[in-house]
């Protein structure tokens, strides 16, 4: 383990040593700004918001791509689970498409993006999608229908609680899980989304940068996964029985769907089909490739062989790390972020046994650690040469941005962990969290759903 730590630290320090030089973008780097056009004269009145068909088409496609990520996540997780839990694991992702959709349409969207109340939460102006029609909402996306912005954000709200399920796979009651993700969406995701992305939200007002969900999606789910793993406890036989992935082919397919959907996740967060979307798209792909390679190399050195699970996990780690930064950094910076993401997340996953918690499918090591790393590295590599609407990071002359990013990370960590812990403790006292030992031995497919993933 000491050897692993030394390898990872040397690798990470080498990346950071080269970072200031590699991060420099070409002198002709485009001045990118979401939905920007040539500046109008200062004295001219801004034109009223108008739906642009190109932007609308792009965000429609992106929303569909992000939707596909949730069943893709189910496959990614299910392949890593044991055979007797394959359907139960898929169900924990797939059911979020139903329950969070309704929650978001009724009041979740309004709590996240409604008129600000005290910099903490949105009001209920958009309750049951009242006033959310085909005209643009100029506060968020002035060239696409308001309903399209709402449904694009809905797909983020859906996949985020599903991410948590990987840490508690193979042992949570399905009915309790349904109540948990509903309460979690209301009490954790909706407020945090407003803080970071909502007009008036305190983290947004502070100047923190989170282009596509490093704080809102990955830190919130990863930290909540840690709280959930601690509250539920370890799986029966953990540490003494072999709990190897039952179908890595399924996991690789799931990783491919996640990689594909992430182009919509990050590229769509530009909320227009222009240059910023293209920049985020490129950064996303490059970082994922770099993450896959760095995880593979570090694992190869540490364990002696590269694995399929490792390269798939590294690709996801690179995607997680670049998510908050993708709209603020250029291609060379994205290589560094991806390389760091793969190496650091491998180290975090490898150290899990030392800390003694049972994060079944490595949600904490990839999403909590990767999201934290990405948010902090945004404070290093962000550049107004890439996106004038953002800000410069430490390597471009603004050290204060790194401090702002760090404060936002601490806030997301503390809030997500504490609220999730309280929710789970209440549910454990009222409904019970875990299936019985007999049901756990039988597997969730049969005990919770009365069906089997395979008929052999």
Throw out a few tags for this protein:
mainly alpha, Ammonium transporter fold, two-stranded antiparallel sheet, 17 helices
Describe this structure as you would to a colleague:
The protein has 456 residues and is mainly alpha-helical. It has one domain (2-15, 51-446): Ammonium transporter AmtB like domains (Ammonium transporter fold, Orthogonal Bundle). It contains 17 helices and 2 strands. The chain has helices spanning 2-22, 53-80, 86-94, 96-113, 146-164, 174-197, 202-206, 214-232, 248-267, 275-303, 308-322, 331-350, 352-355, 363-381, 399-430, 437-442, 444-449, and strands at residues 116-117, 121-122. It has a two-stranded antiparallel ribbon. A hairpin with a 3-residue loop joins strand 1 (116-117) and strand 2 (121-122). The longest helix has 32 residues, at 399-430. The two termini are 40 Å apart.
């Amino acid at each position: 383990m000491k050897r692993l730590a030394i390898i990872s630290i040397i690798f990470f320090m080498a990346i950071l040593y080269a970072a200031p030089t590699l991060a420099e973008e070409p002198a002709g780097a485009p001045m990118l700004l979401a939905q920007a056009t040539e500046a109008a004269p200062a004295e001219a009145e801004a034109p009223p918001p108008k739906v642009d068909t190109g932007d609308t088409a792009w965000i429609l496609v992106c929303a569909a791509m992000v939707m596909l990520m949730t069943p893709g996540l189910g496959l990614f997780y299910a392949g890593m689970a044991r055979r007797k839990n394959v359907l139960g694991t898929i169900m924990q992702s797939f059911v979020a498409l139903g329950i969070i959709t309704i929650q978001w349409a009724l009041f979740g969207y309004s709590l996240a993006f409604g008129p600000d109340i005290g910099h903490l939460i949105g009001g209920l102006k958009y309750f049951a999608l009242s006033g959310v029609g085909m005209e643009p909402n100029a506060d968020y996306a002035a060239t696409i229908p308001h309903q399209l912005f709402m449904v694009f954000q809905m797909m983020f709200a859906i996949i985020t609680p599903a991410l948590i399920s990987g840490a508690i796979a193979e042992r949570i009651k399905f009915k309790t899980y349904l109540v948990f993700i509903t309460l979690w969406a209301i009490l954790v995701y909706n407020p945090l989304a407003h803080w970071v992305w909502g007009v008036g939200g305190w983290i947004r007002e502070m100047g923190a940068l989170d282009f596509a969900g490093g704080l809102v999606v990955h830190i919130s789910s990863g930290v909540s996964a840690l709280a959930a793993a601690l509250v539920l406890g370890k799986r029966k036989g953990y540490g003494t029985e072999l709990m190897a992935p039952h179908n890595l082919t399924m996991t690789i397919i799931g990783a491919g769907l996640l990689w594909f959907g992430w182009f919509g996740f990050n590229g769509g967060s530009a909320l227009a089909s222009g240059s910023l979307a293209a920049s985020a798209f490129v950064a996303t792909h490059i970082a994922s490739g770099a993450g896959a390679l760095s995880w593979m190399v570090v694992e190869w050195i540490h364990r002696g062989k590269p694995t399929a699970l490792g390269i798939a996990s590294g690709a996801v780690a690179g995607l997680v790390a670049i998510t908050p930064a993708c709209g603020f950094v250029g291609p060379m910076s994205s290589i560094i972020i991806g390389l760091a993401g793969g190496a650091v997340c491998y180290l975090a996953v490898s150290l899990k046994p030392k800390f003694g918690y049972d994060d079944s499918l490595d949600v904490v090591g990839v999403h909590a650690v990767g999201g934290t790393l990405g948010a902090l590295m945004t404070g290093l590599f962000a550049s107004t040469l890439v996106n004038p609407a953002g800000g410069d990071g430490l390597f471009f002359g603004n050290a204060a941005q790194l401090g702002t990013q760090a404060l936002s990370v601490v806030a997301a960590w503390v809030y997500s962990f504490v609220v999730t812990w309280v929710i789970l403790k209440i549910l454990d006292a009222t409904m019970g969290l875990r299936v019985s030992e007999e049901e756990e031995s039988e597997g969730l497919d049969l005990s919770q759903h009365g069906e089997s993933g395979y008929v052999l």
